[in-house]
Amino acid sequence: MQKVQYSKGIAPYIPFFYVIWSDDLLSASEIQVVKKAIKEDDSLSNEERKILANWLDKGNPPKNTEVKKWQQFITQSKAKLVESEIYPLETFSQKVAKGHKIDVTENNQLQYVEKTLGIQPNHYNHLFNVEVDRQIDSLRFEPKFLDEILYGDKLSEVRRFRDFLKHQDFKWTIHPTKEGAREVVLKQLKNLASGGWGAYAYPEEYGGKDNLETYAAIFEHLMFVDGSLAVKFGVQFGLFGGSIQNLGNSVQRDKYLSNTGDTSLLGCFAMTETGHGSNVRGINTTATYLHEERSLVIDTPGKYDNKEYIGNALHSKMATVFAQLIVNGQNEGVHAILVPLRDTKHQVLDGVTIEDNGYKLGLNGVDNGKIWFSQVKVPIENLLDKYGGIDENGNYKSPIKNPNKRFFTMLGTLVGGRICVAKGALAAAKMSLTISVKHGLRRRQFNDSIKIQEDLLIDYPTHQLRLIPKVASCLVYHFALERAMYEYASNKDGDKRRIETQVAGLKSIITWFSSQAVQESREACGGKGYLRENRIADLKNDSDIFTTFEGDNTVLLQLAAKGVLSDFKSEFNSGGFASVLKLLGNQLNDKLTTINPLYVNKVDSEHLYNHKFHLHALDFRLRRLTYTAAMRIRNYIKKGMPSYQAFLKTQTHLLEVGKAYSEVLAIKWYYEKTRSITDDKYRDLFFQIGSLHSLNIIRKDAEWYLEQGYLGSAKSKAIRQRIERLSSELRPHIGSLIDGFGIPEHLLTAPISKDW
């Protein structure tokens, strides 16, 4: 066969032209991308530019003989295509040229073409009669260093905890009955307490390290062991112990907190009622003060006023019970009281009735129960009175005079629990994605010839789109929750309304994301993902409750939206006329931006990958939704509708405000963290990850953006293509990224996550 030759400038372009003509990738806009590259490529002579430009004429395409010469040129080079390269096609083009003894170097313009057109190896590897190296991972990024970025100064303690979990007691097994599962989980809980991990968030004088951020990381890691253990851990040390620490006084802490931390006192957190669910303020359990006895009488007035779904109910000796505090005939609102449930022989006390909730969808290692109280007396010393108590004269006293503010301040001390729930849900997503990605890096399936090795699952574009954007979102949400816990822990005694709004929204979007990620992971593993031995089935069932646990997501998003509207109203009112002008100016600027065709159809990668574009797009949606929601509510009220009804009329609108607010917050905090990474290579990686997450979020709301004129059809299409391209760009590093989650190898017990 006659040897084909091309000039030094043209040679690297041959694989590109072969790909784009063979797969017919050239649209009008894409021709402009290639023309731009040719024009700006200093390695080309004018004659070479002319030849390449002629090959771009769709009206007069290259003849078949020319295309066959390109194919021969590629084949004769004996070059090897390595799919895990950062720019696989541009790197392959270098190798093709060098195979013909043509000395070429890295070509930035061809990298630009490859990136901008979104050309993936799956588009062309079938076209080349060459050896294809499908490396599992590029090894460009160190999982240990990714782990350091994720956990920062907590990492040494986190790694010490991971080592602690090597104990045989934490080995994952299938429990056929809830009774057996509960025994194992209780033993694990006591093991954790003996190691000092349960009391980690408590002050040092009570056996702790006063470190709430590391406590949250411990909770997250327990999801890798067993969801039931994580929840029971959170109930015992976070909810029950946390209520004593945050709502109680020094005497109560001295009496109970150390015993809670070492599990010699097992407790539960009795807030939710069958008849009220999320409406804590409306609970019906009462705590009536008897001054002559200096006692409180705890009572469940009706059949459906019982405490419901209380974790640790069957193992506990004491409960933190939330009840309406009645003093001198006056209802002073919801307060928390420590109420004994059982004696030293674990017998239920008089006046207390406890029933097992029975089998659940998941978390059957947690002993959830229902509790009724019938005229149960406890001493006044059991009232957790940090925000409201009863003096020696029998009068109610509180440092916070406003009942509404007092109620929300009390609940605000429990925001840390919502952060932990979101962290637990995210851990389930991380674990499921790790298992499914590792399976995809090993399992091969299908090809166009039975004589050729089958393709890895992860090398199929559909598989990449199923999993890789979700891995990116895990990293974004990880940083967001780390920041949320830092903000919460740094403001222990201040006004927590702002962080409560932030956490309400983040908890909602992250737990919903987790449910989707776990389900996608299960499906990506086929029937293997349905086997309990491969963990995803249990992760799915155990994490499903997190969408309603510690607050129903739909309710929490309304809470977040009301916080956004309160800020909007405050800003609007405080500035008077100037504030109105500012608001209208912002709206006008948005309008001008969206109708500018140069913006709405701007599709180059520099723009679409720019974090400023992501922040602007997401913030635009938030501001527009907030403004229109506020105007709708105002108009309803002006027509005489009560404010409560006005909020009900705009409820679905408010949910979108809450979601938009939460997505803006998550990506804003993520990019702030990313900018602080000092290593250029890793900082660029995390910006790339942020781009994939952000574009994916924008894409999901593309219909709204198109309606608003913020995106044109060309830009919407380009965003979809960018998501595919970014997924393929991150494919070479996906093994390192999931290992960077830091899930200990001894906890990755799923057989499909191992080498075959």
Automatic annotation (TrEMBL):
Residues 268-376 form the Acyl-CoA oxidase/dehydrogenase middle domain. It comes from Croceivirga thetidis. Residues 412-563 form the Acyl-CoA oxidase C-alpha1 domain. Its cofactor is FAD. Residues 186-258 form the Acyl-CoA dehydrogenase/oxidase N-terminal domain. Signal peptide: none annotated. Keywords: FAD, Flavoprotein, Oxidoreductase. It comes from the Bacteria. InterPro entries: ACOX_C_alpha1 (IPR055060), Acyl-CoA_Oxase/DH_mid-dom (IPR006091), Acyl-CoA_Oxase/DH_mid-dom_sf (IPR046373), Acyl-CoA_oxidase (IPR012258), Acyl-CoA_oxidase_C (IPR002655), AcylCo_DH-like_C (IPR036250), AcylCoA_DH/ox_N (IPR013786), AcylCoA_DH/ox_N_sf (IPR037069). This is Acyl-CoA oxidase. The keyword Transferase does not apply. Belongs to the acyl-CoA oxidase family. The keyword tRNA processing does not apply. Residues 613-753 form the Acyl-CoA oxidase C-terminal domain.
